[in-house]
Amino acid sequence: METISSIISTIVESDRTLALLRALAVLLLGLVAARLVTRRLSLKRVKALQGAQVFLVRRVLGWGIIAIAIAWALRELGFEITTLLGAAGILTLAVAFAAQTSVSNLISGLFLMGERPFMIGDFVSVDDITGEVLSIDLLSLRLRTFDNLMVRIPNETMLKSNMTNLSRFPIRRLDLKIGVAYKEDLDRVKAVLDRVADANPLCLEEPRPLFIFLGFGDSSLDMQYSVWTKRENFLETRNRMYLGIKAAFDAEDIEIPFPHRSLYTGSVTEPLPVSLVEPASRNGVRGAGSDQPSDR
Fold first, then answer.
1. Bridge partner list, 130
2. Model pTM?
3. Rounded Cα gap, residues 296 and 292, in angstroms
4. How far apart are CA 104 and CA 95, in angstroms?
5. Whole-angstrom Cα distance, residue 211 to residue 175?
6. Which of 51, 77, 198, 292 has its CA 20 to 30 A from that of 101?
7. Using one digit for the tens of pLDDT, what is the confidence trace for 2-52?
8. Are 224 and 175 in contact (CB under 8 A)?
9. In 10 A of CB 249, how many CB atoms?
């Protein structure tokens, strides 16, 4: 028993064993510290930062504490920190050349964090993709579209593309494109549109609706009627306004024209002559009164 005890004591008291134990203790403390720091750092505690920035700070602090713990543990095992830093620099340079796209996305993500064009929960539109921001990671942005699909967009694409934030401001303007027949009185049309907007409780009284005459179209007088509404009521307001305008135009006998074309044969005053000829019957005899074509 004394021999076994002495062997165990020798192993425990050896410098290498103690260094290994200290290194394991440092790693354990580093993991615990990183977990505690990232848990305590929340949006409520850091009011100066937004959700995406808090998420990034938590990631950087957590991995930074773990990296310091690893370096400390390696030092306890007898490794030279300067040598490790030199090797890490060479490795970082090689990885940077091999992963230029990832580095570009990482730097673009830092620029997005600093610029803060959107937050988690905002609705944004990038090119032809529109959705809710679910997360902002170091390399990409994740959106949930209106049909419940998850779309991943690289941070570099977000920085280079034209991005529209649909949730930035509390109210939005709804632009309605409308066309009426040439015979209609535009003042009367505007009065009807104003009545429809006043009757819609989702349309704001201020700013007032905007009426813009766009020009003479191929088949209609084109105009734009714009109303303001709260951003959360945008889609419902658009549906109500279009339904209300259709009902009001029908009640006031205002024509919404369909596309049509006028054909002329060298003169702008005389109509184009059209001859109607009845088709031959199965026995080869034309119908009664079909010998002479008729002009219509």
1. 125
2. 0.59
3. 13
4. 13
5. 10
6. 51
7. 565 555 555 555 667 777 777 788 788 888 887 787 777 654 454 445 555
8. yes
9. 19
